[in-house]
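ARCHIVE RECORD
Type: protein–small molecule complex
Small molecule: zinc ion
Source of inputs: curated submission
Record status: active
Notes field left blank by submitter.
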Amino acid sequence: MDIIKELEKLRREHYWNASDCWYSCPKSADGSCNDSEMDECTCGADRHNRQLDRIINYMRTNVPRTESQDPDPNIEPPAFDLVSTVF
Ligand SMILES: [Zn+2]
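STRUCTURE (tokenized, with ligand):
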């Protein structure tokens, strides 16, 4: 599993309300009809995506890739020997 690719799937789009654009996020593709809204995200997508970026950056810099993240499907995993592990 490519964890970065899986995390990227969690990225959010800005909210867009098809029936009443008053409630759309100003940063959505068609923007908001509420002129009092500035060009700031009101739907939480920016905050969510910033947090996601922090997690992805942390994973890229601090978590080394291991074989367990990307197992070779042709290799049988070793049998777990509980007795010799415990004692
Ligand atoms: Zn938004």
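CURATOR ANNOTATION: The helical segments are 3-8, 45-62, 82-86.
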